[in-house]
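To whoever picks this up:

The parser on our side crashed when reading a file containing two proteins. I've narrowed it down to the boundary between the first structure block and the second sequence. Both blocks are reproduced below exactly, byte for byte. First block:
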Amino acid sequence: MVSSEDASVQTSNRYGHGPASLLDKAFRSSSIAADSRTHRVPGHTSQVDTLLRSSTTQNSRTHTLRTPTSLLNTALRSSTIAEDSSAHHAPAHHALVDSFLRSNTPPNSGENHVHSHTSQVDGMINTSTTTISASSSQSLERRARDVEGFRLFTMAELEAATRNFSGRNRIGGDVYRGKLADGRKVAIKKKMMFQLLLKKKKMITSTTAEILSRLRHKNLIKLFGYHEGNDLRFAVYEYVENGSLHHHFHDEYNGDVLSSWRMRIKIAFDACRGIEYLHYYADPSISHGHLKPSNILLDADWTARVSDFEWSLVSTNDAYEKARSDDVYSLGVVMLELLTGKRDVAEHCDKTIPAPESISEEELKKILDPRIGAPMLKKETKAVRLLLSVAKKCVKPNSFWKMRPKVDSIVSELGKALSLCGGSPDISSGRIPVIAEHSNKAEEFPLHELVAATNNFSPDNKIGVGGFGVVYKGTLADGREVAIKRSESNSKKKIEFEDRLSVFEAELDFLSRLHHRNLVRLVGFCEDKNERLLVCEYVLNGSLYNLLHHKNKGSRLDSWKLRIQIALDACRGIEYLHNYAGHPIIHRDIKSSNILIDHNWTARVCDFGLSLTSPGYNSDYRPKKAGTRGYMDPEYRDQNVLTTKSDVYSLGVVLLELLTGKKAIFKHGKEEISLVDFASTSIQIRELEKVWDERVEPPRHHEKKALYVMGDTARLCVRSEGKHRPPIDNIVAQLKEALEVFNDRE
């Protein structure tokens, strides 16, 4: 669902210095119209005005300018804003004007293809870079099937869903509630093409849609698809029941929702979690660019979910720190609004709000929203002060943007604040629906393409064996390197094939719905008679198991910092599964051979063939036991008790592998011994040096602290009873603390 509020320029400016607000300032003094009046627009925006007043193409043909759209198209055919780079060096965000105008250039008449203009600006790519002509819809439909649930809608479908855009279905502004033929409730946002330029809005196009459709997080709104005509653009979003934070704050104050400080802090925490996912765990990384209360929606469980990605930008390298900092500023403004109930606090925050640590109880009471008043409990007061402290750091002026905190540290602080209020940072409910049709989720390959990609499944291309089958390295016809998982087709028993089919369906289902930089991505699949193949991205450096235990001396990991970083990456991938993928997912087969290391030495969890949604949501379901000896939770192995803490046990074993360099089960003299039994006691009695991997240079004095943090975390993870093991978010926090020991010394 999208915002029901079309904010004015002044409203947009309050929530940040991102591309939206910068363009607002540039356009404030000029109304770009279709007539020939002269406009004096400061700076680079005058180029837009020049283009709009241009009405003659280079080949001197005369065009009748009947609509604003045709005026834009004519102007664009005759000029390119950025062709003369020596004469015109637009600042990064103003170059978005160029990218937007280029994206509206129509394909040549009669041609059936997509024009793609990627505007790279200081390491950023405008997500709205491709304009699709009406004649290219079939081509886009083929691309659209690669993304789960994403599709092009016809105008007839949208009219039927909204009862011809009935006033009764209008939520606010140009947003309509609708119901699709398959029963899904949606919110449909309508924009005229020329409005998009006048209001500095970008249109949703194929590149945007493909990126957004891959995003899966409980604190983000899902994009289902879109429709575009000659002058109108429609984006079809997931509908959420309880509207926007802005609506509850200012249009119709809802005391039930906002009358508790715990709930307000929870909303801030949820929104920050959504932005954290975009910044650090979406692949590629994304900055939102236009965060404000009307773009924070509340679902049926009153979970806050970030929406409206019309200004979102995709990073191609590390040069987009400023854009991420702008998102942090906007988060700070939202936090101040949650605290004070006022809209215009951020700009004068330094003058009007004292430092939270020195503010008196009376001063705090004056600052806080009078509709809720000061908190009554000491812990709650401490939580509110913590929220205020974080908010003030976020809204440092633009000249000090580098001093604003990173969103992951904000999440950590708000998690503490929420705990003080008696709330849990990680609350999940419900069950993931089973999706039967896989053709809408991933590219379907014919078998002959995968045969060619792997040299007929040559033994030379074999790179491993997973829960689903043998894994081969392959090169597709377009040059992409992939890992192809093939189920053996020569089974003697039908039941064996049915078991493999179940694993295939499970892995395809999970992979097509998950998107996180610490999880391996699905590319596509193949079903051909008895053949079942999964096509995943190829991860360059292979498995953690091979790097740790391979006999090749050059393959081992010789840095404690890197080992802790790998542990943190793997735990973040599992944290996403347990807490943020929608509803809890249990991997069931976490081990070092299912953790792959990419070209940047980032760890990525793979092999979801045995994964399940949490059985707590279906108490009658008792799956067959699955897992790997040495990594398997003893409660699950002996009592068939399966919870997310089963994954925590397996992660603990992986942490011990990273610390000791030993396998989960290894030979000690003539006997086999469990790594858990070997290492736990030494860690507990503070004799870690007896078991750490001697192939790595001994840690310096300050680094020992980091290893003990990791060791203690591992020891807690492998406790025999699940109820005594830490939750995954605590493990992530501990490993972040361990890694900071190294970062602080650099």
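<<boundary where parser fails>>
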Amino acid sequence: MLLKEEIRRLERNGERLNHFENSEYLKNVILKFLSPERVSGERVQLVPILATMLRLSPDETELLNRVASQDG
């Protein structure tokens, strides 16, 4: 019984770490998207990443694409 509890605790800790890493990655992608472009088309390249991580609808993704394309 003690072993099962320890396994569950370790799994929860792993899930928390994974969530933290994903949150940190998402934060960095959003900041990169909002920052002035250093490379042409950089924002457009970030749209699929944001769409996946934020589970955007096709309409929301298209809106983000339009915003990203305005920089070019």
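After patching the parser it read the second block fine. Helices lie at 2-34, 42-53, 58-69. The mean pLDDT is 89.
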